[in-house]
Specification:
Layout: E1 4-7, E2 10-13, E3 18-24, E4 33-39, E5 46-51, E6 56-58, E7 66-71, E8 76-81, E9 90-99, E10 104-109, E11 113-118
Parallel strand pairs: 2-11
Antiparallel strand pairs: 1-3, 3-8, 4-5, 4-9, 5-6, 7-8, 9-10, 9-11
Length: about 120
């Protein structure tokens, strides 16, 4: 069992930056792929970024602006968000998962942290 807890959300002006953190429990943190997702009001949850032991991947909408990283010694994954836009406004979720041969499957989810970008 893995528990994840997001933090770092808030209100920021367009063009600004925020860094989200996701602290995870468990001694096997380093073996999990860690993903960030977001859900805007009235929209489906969407993929933002994922980091495995060896690679990262980003949604096109955030590529070049967001950076995902992890510190296995601290059981923490980060999402550095730069050049924020109003359309980045959403609840951001962290999730722990594994590759099933075709895609990442996320089994453990946090409660989310609100990010609001004002124009």
């Amino acid at each position: 069992q893995v528990q994840v807890l997001e933090s770092g959300g808030g209100l920021v002006q367009a063009g600004g930056s925020l860094r989200l953190s996701c602290a995870a429990s468990g001694r096997t943190f380093s073996t999990y792929a860690m993903g960030w997702f977001r859900q805007a009001p009235g929209k489906d949850r969407e993929f933002v970024a994922v980091i495995s032991q060896a690679s990262t991947s980003y949604a096109d909408a955030v590529k070049g602006r967001f950076t995902i990283s992890r510190d296995n010694a601290k059981n923490t994954v980060y999402l550095q968000m730069n050049s924020l836009k109003p359309e980045d406004t959403a609840v951001y979720y962290c999730a722990a998962g594994a590759w099933d041969g075709r895609e990442y499957k996320y089994s453990y989810w946090g409660q989310g942290t609100q990010v609001t970008v004002s124009s």
